[in-house]
Design a protein that fits this description.
Length: 457
């Protein structure tokens, strides 16, 4: 590369010099305004412009075809391409501009503008973005190409697998099984598509509507369909009682406060946040005191640092005239439980928590599970979504749950998911709560009462 510097009074003159000396393929490398000088040596100098141009040795004047060679392009900040200008070449210092005819005017314009107003330097961020943008675009294109390559590889792998005879056989077996299971569950579960006689079919449909998993009672429904006479089937009330009996066969209840013999019954209430544990503990204590004024009851609670939790229980303690004790660890809880074994009832309230919170579950486990004197009751709100019920059961099962309490049954008419939950847990139900009033809104669970509620009665 041949480099030469030209000095002239103005840009057009300098460019003319370059063209005449180096030809139209010459490339501007840099431009610099030359200041007017004063003093002995610059006394009468009026300033001008100094331009450095470069040219490949074989691209000099007279070289064939050079005029038609494409003008190099540069990328603008907005991504569009344009012919580089002297201005931009000068700004970047290393960007090439070709001194062709088409640039003469622009060069002159740019130089004039430069003399009037100094070119503002682009912001550093702007300059960085200027260079980053094309790289980003390149990366985007590459990412798209990689993705389509990946997809191609995956579909090639699938084709290879499908051509494998073992795989094909396995797939058709799975499809066959899926079809058979579908047919079976359709026949058993979907009351509309079975041969269930009316009104059995319409009752089954109501249960399904309330969220009852019909696979749980499919056997019972089929049995009724085969054994009930046409006369019995014609009486809807009778058929409802038969279905009720089928539901009742599947759930268990337990009398919560049967005498614990010589010692107190100790009930710990655990469960997700806000299901009504503290309120239910107060209701249980309150109802016992209504029944037997002389009954001796104590409240214990775990210090799990939840602001307000203790105050809530203390409020009920004061209301019912009962002591409230706080345990800060498992040993202290055990000591407090033993200290109250001469009572009729000890209620251990726990802090509600997200069942997905491992730390909290671990803390509860450390408090409650090692103590054989404590019966752990899981409190579940009737408004819980079926999917969450499964999670709750899974997470709380580490606490050796013995019994169930269903709260807030007044807030829903769909008892189906609680029926499924209870049936699948295999645990007995002790209480149902149906309102916020303490101690009134608490029912000792009976199979008949619970199943009638599930049936919407
Ligand atoms: N509708 C209705 N509300 C209830 C029932 N039981 C409790 N509640 C209300 O549910 C809210 C929460 O009750 P709490 O007893 O504080 O619940 P908790 O499980 O102790 O709550 P945490 O200690 O925060 O986990 C209160 O507003 C209660 O009045 C019920 O059976 N029906
Ligand atoms: Mg509470």
């Amino acid at each position: 590369m041949l480099l030469r510097t030209f000095t002239a009074a103005d840009v057009p003159s300098a460019v003319r010099q370059i063209r005449e000396t180096l030809g139209p393929e010459a490339v501007i490398v840099s431009t610099r305004p030359v200041k007017a000088r004063r003093g002995a040596f610059g006394l009468f100098s009026s300033g001008g412009v100094e331009i450095t141009a470069a040219i490949e040795p074989d691209a000099g004047p007279g070289r064939e075809g050079t005029r038609d060679a494409p003008v190099p392009k540069i990328l603008r900040r907005d991504g569009a391409e344009r012919t580089p200008s002297l201005e931009s070449a000068a700004r970047r210092g290393n960007t090439l501009a070709v001194v062709g005819d088409d640039l003469d005017e622009e060069i002159a314009r740019t130089a004039a503008a430069r003399e009037e107003t100094p070119e503002p330097r682009p912001e550093p961020r702007e300059r960085v973005m200027f260079y980053i943008k094309p790289i980003r675009e390149e990366l985007r294109t590459l990412t798209t190409e990689i993705e389509s390559l990946k997809q191609e590889t995956r579909s090639r792998q699938m084709r290879t697998l499908e051509s494998n005879s073992g795989f094909t056989r396995m797939r058709s077996e799975i499809a066959e099984l899926r079809y058979l299971v579908g047919r079976m569950s359709e026949a058993v579960v979907d009351p509309a598509s079975t041969s269930l006689p009316d009104p059995l079919r319409s009752i089954a449909m109501q249960l399904a509507d309330a969220g009852v998993d019909l696979t749980l009672i499919a056997g019972g429904l089929q049995r009724l369909a085969q054994t009930l006479t046409p006369d019995q089937l014609s009486q809807e009330a009778y058929v409802r009682e038969c279905v009720l009996a089928e539901l009742m066969r599947l759930v268990a209840v337990s009398a919560p406060l049967e005498s614990g013999g010589q010692r107190a019954r100790v009930l710990a209430l655990v469960g997700p946040t806000g299901v009504g544990k503290t309120t239910t503990a107060a209701k249980i204590a309150g109802q016992l005191l209504l029944e037997r004024r002389e009954a001796r009851v104590a409240f214990l609670t775990l210090d799990t640092y939840r602001i307000g939790a203790l105050d809530h229980l203390r409020h009920y303690g004061e209301m019912l005239g009962l002591p409230v004790h706080v345990a800060t660890n498992a040993a202290e809880l055990d000591r407090l439980v033993r200290a109250h074994l001469d009572h009729d009832l000890v209620l251990v309230d726990t802090t509600g928590g997200n069942p997905k919170d491992d730390r909290l579950m671990g803390e509860l486990h450390a408090f409650i599970s090692p103590n054989p004197l404590i019966e752990t009751h899981l409190c579940v709100s009737a408004t819980t979504k079926p999917r969450d019920l499964r999670d709750i059961h899974e997470r709380f099962s580490s606490l050796a749950i013995e019994k169930m309490i269903f709260t807030k049954i007044d807030e829903t008419n769909c008892g189906g998911s609680l029926f499924n939950f209870l049936t699948l847990s295999g645990k007995p139900l002790t209480y149902l709560t149906n309102g916020q009033q303490v101690p009134e809104d608490l029912r000792v669970a009976t199979r008949d009462g619970f199943c009638r509620w599930v049936m919407g009665e």
